[in-house]
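Before relying on records like the one below, remember that each one covers exactly one chain. Contacts with other chains, cofactors or solvent are not represented anywhere in the record.
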Amino acid sequence: MGTQGSSAVKEVFMGSSTIEVLQKIDFCPIVAVPANYDYDVPDKIAFATNFEHIYSKVELIPLITIAELWDSAIEFVHIDKGTELMAHQKTAKKVLKDRFYGLSYKYVEIDGHSKISEAIMEYASNHKDIGMIAMVNYWHSFFEKLIKENIIKRVAFHTEVPFLIFPLIDP
């Protein structure tokens, strides 16, 4: 999906129509490409995760397919909030190693940010070899939407690189 970013704010790279599609379509992967993006095969794809979900092979197909197609390395970007990973998060982190077997990947811990979206954008901005950001579109309840940061929306509005959003598939 190409985007225009037609907003009065100069730093906005994706328009409100793209954001609306990203929020409403939760059953297939979407790649949103900023209008001014100068196409280049990404050396690295930053996959932002909190290790709260154990990903199935099926869920990761969009990301794995793109990484294999372009021979891109994956960077699992986790925002460290100053607490140790819980048991289920450690398991989810370990499972990623199995899911990405045969691909180039590494884990990256980022700390010192109050907003997850800002940490992700800053990381991508500071690492010019990041050519795509990937995230899973989680379903949130009404109350979660009121109190939690809308990370996908914030990243999509400000990213300078293509943004892959793929759905969470619950068993």
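The first strand starts at residue 30 and ends at 32.
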